[in-house]
Amino acid sequence: MIFYARTTAIVPICLETMRCDQATGVASSAAHRHHPFKKLVVVMKLTAILLLIGCLQVSANGFAQGKITMRKTGATLEEVLVEINKQTGVLYSANGKTLKKAAPIDINVKNEELAKVLAICFAGQPLTYTFRENIIIVKEKVVPMNSELVLGPNPIDVNGRVTNEKGDPVEGVTVTVKGSSKSVKTDTNGEFSLVTIQKDAILIFTHVSMETFELQVKGKTYLAINLKAKISELEDVTITLNTGYQNLPKERATGSFSFINNELLNRRVSTDFLSRLDGITSGLIFNRSSPDLNGKLGISIRGVSTLSGLVSVDPLIVIDNFIYEGDINSINPNDVESITVLKDAAAASIWGARSGNGVIVITTKRGKLNQRMKIDVNANTTIVKKPNLYYTNQFLASSDFINAEIELFNKGYFNGDLVSSFRTPVSPVIEILDARRSGKITSIDSSERIDALRNIDVRDQYSKYVYQTAIRQQYAVNLKGGASNLTYTFSAGFDKNRDHLMYNNSSRLTIKSLTTYNPIKNLELTTGIFYSNNKTTFNNTIGFGSLATGGKYGQIIYPYARFADDNGNPAPIVKGYKYSYVDTIENIGFLDWRYRPLDEIKNGDNTSTSQSLILNTNLKYTFAKLFSAELLFQHEKQTGFSRNHNSLETYYTRDIINTYTQKDASTGTLSYPYPKGGILISGNNELTSNNLRSQLYYNQQINSNHFVSAIVGAEIREVKTISYGNTLYGYDENTGIAASNVPYGTIYSVNPIGARPLIGPDNSIKGTTNRYISYYVNGGYTFHNRYTFTISGRKDGANIFGVKTNDRVTPLWSTGFKWDMSRESFFGLDWISHLSLRASYGYNGNVYNGAAYLITRYSTNSTLTGLPIYNIINPPNAELTWERVRNINVGIDFAVKKDILHGTIELFQKSGLDLVESFTLSPSTGFGSYFANAASNRTKGIDITFNTQNINRGFKWFTTLLFNYTTDKVLKLDYLFGTENAKVNYLINSTFLGNPVPFVGKPLYGLYSYKWAGLDPTTGDPLGFISGKTSNNYDSLINKSSPEDIVYHGSARPKIFGSLRNTFSYKNFTVSANIVFKLDYHFRRSTTSINLGSIVDLPHVDYLKRWQKPGDELHTSVPSIIYPSNDLRNRFYAYSEILVEKGDHIRLQDIQVNYDLSKLLKNRTSFTALQVYLYCNNLTLLWKANKHGIDPDFPYRFSNPSPRSYSIGIKATL
Amino acid sequence: MKNALYNTITFIISPMIITSCNKQDSWLDVKRNRSDLVPQTIQDYQSLLDNDRIMNANYPSLGLIGSDNYYVTSADWQSLGVLERNAYIWADEVYQNSNADWTCAYQIIAYANAVLDGLKKIKPDQNSVASFNRTKGSALFFRSNCFFNIAQIFAKPYHAATASDDLGIVLKLTADVNEPIVRHSIKETYDRIISDLIEAQQLLQEFPTFQTQPSKLSAEALLARVYLTMGDYDKARDFSNLALSRYSQLIDFNTLNESASFPFGTFGKNLEVIFYATPVPYNINYANYLNIVDSSLYALYDDDDLRKTIFYIDNGNGIVRFKGTYTGGYDQFAGIATNELLLIRSECYARLNETNKALEDLNALLSNRFKPGAFVPVNAASAEDALKIIIQERRKEMPFNADIRWLDLRRLNKESKFAVTQKRIINGTTYTLNPNDNKYTYPIPPDEISVSNIPQNPR
Q1: Which chain B residue has its CA at the smallest distance from A1131's CA?
Q2: Is the CB of A1131 inside 8 Å of chain B's CB atoms?
Q3: Do B38 and A855 make contact, defined as CB atoms within 8 angstroms?
């Protein structure tokens, strides 16, 4: 069993850590393929300097423990170990059966070293122990004991040297003379010497990472000892799960937790911590292809149990003890020690009303008592390739695009734009054609000019002038340690990222300090300071897909746009207005009204900075042995400042000034209502959160059979945000002075047409206040170390509905049970070293952010009357309540002897109850939709984690498999469908990206389509079915079809997902590769519009595959493209069966190579660890089900697959 | 030890006590979003009605697309959106799914209903009764105006004889979204429009502060329009009379700049406007865009008639485009102005055989529309003759005024002497709309039918 008493001093240790500690690596040919980037060399130099600084620190001197004072007679070993734990914080781990074999102990020591105390305790015991990282692992002696210890009269001196399997010296091995308190440690050369010991003495060699070894001296005076690296007992070592309220040993956890240790967390190289969870966290999926409706993080844990856009789908993020409200990117992953993901009710219900989507608890690094100062340095550089702009299908090469434009022009599609008094922009090709039509140029001229444009590809321009290789640099240093009554951690990190878009970059500085102090006995004070400073420069806003011409071209620019002329000077593109108009207006003295993308990048002056400060204190007092009381307070403040200076050179400013420029009809002089000067748009925002929590712990071990623990507490919390905006017109950067006499509100005629008031800046102050009150109780009882019951309850209140308290407060609870079968005496399966069963049941909550009453929101004053005006935000519904999620979880944890295989299998069921759903209302109600707690859904699934040791000799091969199967169904939905056809429209139209489609009996993210009957061989029309017969009556197909006429394909979210991670190690090399898979889901592939007019605003390569003549239907499914448009025909095709593809795919996500230098440098430096690592991310798709070259994670317009990245880094510990 | 335990427990419990009961309530009472507000006061409700982006915008204008004052070329027609193309040729199916005429008008109604529901909970005192009445009257006016506008597009023309049986519109009278949605009869529809307007007329202040706000004047003007549409000329005369007695300002077109791209003053500067509103901005209806003024209409204007140059721009090649919208911008006008009131009263007088009075009103209007010295007062031998002239002048005076022409076509088709057969020619195909055709009633948008399943209009 595992015992623990001090919640604060427990170090989470994970299986993976231990295994990887041993890993010695295998040379991988892949590792040598990395290109030696120049930049990396620079980084390595920097890193070396950092490391040198570190070298000046004190050299290693073994592992010091607290001194122990103890006086006991006839005590059990367990009592002694409990006492040791109380005094030093050292844990122990042992099988209950084993402990009972210990003989009673008499001990009387004062201020004695732990090692000596242990030596006394274990003297003559049929047990032995190993000691590592603050845990004493007790086990039965394997070597038969020489029971007759004869203390002979002729003591000898013994010297020796301890080496490992490779012959390297091992430092810090404790050499103890069995049955005495005499012990020494090996030095850096692995050497030791013992004086005056008995000839027949038995020496015990113990080391943190080595197998304990015993040897009879037999009179030898020099001993060469070869120790084996430790690999067993992994299952005995505790993992401590941090729920944010308490540290819970995994052995007593009845709920579902995923624990990510430091090693695994650092496998990936990234600026943020969140992306590091991808592919290594069971049950957690990144929804890249279909972002959630109301999710900022883009992840979900065990499916989604909410339907409405007003309810967050994000898991709750907790750092150490409190909910984190700030920007996720402010957290430096190098400060994170471990992450615990809480997945079921028993795990997460302590977080109550906001835990329905799961909780991610981040535990930051902290020092340990009696630990000498440890310095960790980490430095790395990542190079990310340019995104592949040529990936998208939603693009037409210039020549094809121009042909479509010519056809459209000839049909009169641009006639309106060409006469429009709005001076609607048309592309250069249309201007040429118009000039030709009106006889201004000859047909030869026009075709020559047009042909000159045919070979330009705007993507080449983007690659050359807009995009660059991104570079991310990361440096972090962490100092930690502790004395007998205090621990400290101090860390600093700096990240510098150069973006893919030229002139864009960001940096982050983080500083953290965490100290615990025991000023008097039983009192512990913890204070933490987290500071982060982020700076982002966003001067380049013209990324692929961000430039819009406007007019008939909508949100795109024509593919033959050039960013630079033949001499490399910035060239203009058509934007906002026709060139012919811009020409004339410039001639009468207006400002340049052209948009030059490259000038925009260069003239950009857009930065934002944010500072985040978290201060927390935690006062804990232990009294009456069984109780401790804790008072926690945290203050979090994040302030942001953004500044976008649009100088007079920027299009933004010139456009505004030109729009309002007044020309005096008689004199022709120009005047400028908006002053001729820059426009400075700045904004401040501030987030303040205060948390106060008080709680009482109760812990009691009643003889060895019962263990009871409980927490009761209350918490109040307030989160306020406020933002101010400010816009200055006529701003001069040199003097900082802006125009003060701008006649806001005055109506002017505007160019090219109309009249509008001069719109004043919106300087309103926006803010939100969220308040919560919570009470909670949480208890656990363990009987005979085999049976554990847990129970927890929580009541939350919030200022949500502005109604009665009863509706503001929601009670939630959970219970769990765990049975450790392998500790039963009747458990007879020798080959299974551990087997336990867990079950839990309970409720989590989810917060609805809407309102129950008719809510109006102030909008900026009327531009006509200047009066204050209100908008109605939502129709009233006084019956709204909180959402609840009922969670059932059943799990098995098992381990096969020698740890060949260990793992977890969990079955879960999550039922979303009282889910807020949005009804589409009939338009005659005057409201688009309406919210009510009327829906429910159920998610069922299996989470499997297997860890195997396939080969464990000099060459090692370990495998981790994460396998998740999730299926969900909507059980109830009070949706008013007036007609059967309404269901069709609802199902088909709602399957937009990211939108859930709740429909009873189907998954929340179902995918539906119209049945496809091929193409009409005579017209190329897409055909569907009406009561079994093929038809091209699109009005009937769409507006009169019933649910039987459509196809349900399945879920749009992977039902099966997970990862397979193989780790190989040989000597100093470790290589690990992660393969991730997403299976059993569908997505809708993009295609061309089949209306000719949309080819210019929604181009797509499928246009080239269009049906053009009878017979084409045999080899294409793209219908004929028609003019004038038929939207129903297009809609039928766009939502037809033919475009739905299987999303299944397998991806080689990443490879990490680690080279451990510390063993090579052992004799020359004081590094306790020194590693060089290489990491390559977003490697390649190994397999995909679709045949269209689409990466199913990136199916949408302008979404390019994440470019491959290469990182190199160095990590050192002193 | 015991003591320490108690002390500590007290220390732990105290935050809980502090946060319990009443204190918890008041602590949780704080507003979440600074700019959110649960409307409670009369001023809050007035601010909802002052939201001119909702309350004075997007008025129905499908009627304008279906009327005969303009045409588009086949090529231009093809470049338009599906809805505009369908509406232009009076196709059986008009919409793709939803339609802004219907949706936006019912949104205005919902705002008005939210205000009326909220005002029920307010007991005005002596000081607030005036503002209470004004807000309530405004809400009733907005709602009635929308009911009336929707009825002109989505319900059959008013026939007194069949009004009780003909399907009218959905009369949404509260903001409750759970109420069943049903179509009421034409009679119920018009009864409700009139009774609400009469109540509004009693509650409202005489003149608006801004032209976007309803007033006694605009309620009476609207009543005049409603009664004219119903063919109740006595009432229409009475209400136009009432309104004109309050306000009868006309613009002398000689004061306007005919070369301006939009000759009329922008918001607040056009003094003929009684109530300001803009229609749904269909591309085909934009001023000076693709639509070409029907040559037979353009030919009706005398060369000395200033409307010929103020309203229109002649690009040569027979392409005449409209620019004379009363909004003074590119939006068409969907409100009410004094010119319409004079024409209503004039028509009523003619129909009621008061020829002189009819001509007096007509000439009062026209005298402001001609070049100096060129105006010759209209004379008519009979009331019948006068009526013909007045009907024609209505078309000439308000050619692109949202649905006015559509309203006239619907009501006048009942009289054979005024009946018009409309024709459109697109790509060689001729489309015809006969008088009193079912297609003078637009279908209800599919998104409405699919949720509420109310009966569809026959086409």
Answers
A1: B96
A2: yes
A3: yes
Tell me the sheet residues that pair with A105.
A75
Q: Are the C-beta atoms of B229 and B159 separated by less than 8 Å?
A: no
Question: A856 to chain B nearest CA, in Å?
Answer: 5
Chain A closest-CA separation from residue B383 CA (Å): 42
Is the separation of the CB atoms in A213 and A880 below 8 Å? no
Q: How far apart are CA A691 and CA A446, in angstroms?
A: 71
Residues of B in contact with A422 (CB under 8 A): 330
Q: Which residue of A has its CA nearest to B267?
A: A864
Residue window 17-56, chain B: list those with CB within 8 Å of chain A: 19, 24-25, 27-39, 44, 47-48, 50-54, 56
B114 membership: H or E segment, kind and range: helix B100-119
Q: Which of 452-491 (A) contact B at CB < 8 A?
A: none
Locate B271 and state its tokens: 């003094």
Answer whether the bond into residue A996 is a cis peptide, omega within 30°: no
Interface mutation target, options B131, B450, B456, chain A, most CBs of A under 10 Å: B450
**pLDDT band at A4, cuts 50/70/90?**
very low
Measured distance CA(A1032)–CA(A768) in Å, rounded: 52
> What are B154's two structure tokens?
């989505």
Phi first, then psi: give them for residue A717, nearest 5 degrees.
-155, 140
Q: Which of A358, A304, A298, A312 is nearest to A998 (CA)?
A: A304
Helix axes B216-230, B186-203, angle to 10 degrees: 160
| A655 vs A670: CA distance, rounded Å | 15
Bridge partners, A1173 (sequence order): A1154, A1209
Residue A710: phi, psi to the nearest 5?
A: -155, 155
- DSSP3 helix / strand / coil % (chain B, rounded to 5): 50, 10, 45
- Report whether the peptide linkage leading into residue A1119 is cis, meaning its omega lies within 30 degrees of zero: no
CA distance, residue B63 to nearest chain A CA (Å) = 19
Query: How far, in Å, CA of B86 to CA of B84, rounded?
Result: 5
Best of A522, A523, A871, A922 to substitute, by most chain B Cβ atoms within 10 angstroms, is A922
Q: Which residue has the tokens 């005094």?
A: A87
Q: What is the pLDDT of residue A129?
A: 79
Q: Distance (Å) from the C-alpha of residue B210 to the closest C-alpha of chain A? A: 7
Among partner residues A412, A775, A1128, which is closest to B16 by beta-carbon distance? A775
Amino acid at A647: S
Cβ–Cβ gap A872/B98 under 8 Å:
no
> Does residue A46 carry a pLDDT above 80?
no
Q: 3-class DSSP state for residue A677? A: coil
Residue scoring higher pLDDT (A606 or A1167): A606
Quote the distance between the C-alpha of residue B216 and its chain's center.
Answer: 17
CA proximity to B448, closest of A844, A974, A305, A978: A978
Between the two ends of chain B, the Cα-to-Cα distance in Å is 91
Separation in Å, CA of B20 to nearest CA in chain A: 9
B60 touches chain A (CB under 8 A): no
Q: Strand pairing partners for A918?
A: A931
pLDDT tens, residue by residue, A854-880:
777 777 778 888 888 888 877 776 667
Q: Tell if the CB–CB gap between B30 and A769 is shorter than 8 Å.
A: yes
Cis peptide before B445 (omega within 30 of 0): no
Beta bridge partners of A974: none
- Model confidence band, residue A852 (pLDDT cutoffs 50, 70, 90): low
The closest of A1165, A1180, A1145, A1149 to A1212, measured between CA atoms, is A1165
Rounded to two decimals, the pTM is 0.79
How confident is the model over B344-348, as a mean pLDDT? 97
Comparison of pLDDT for A102 and A192, the residue scoring more: A192
Residue-wise pLDDT tens digits, A976-1003: 777 888 888 888 876 555 578 888 999 9
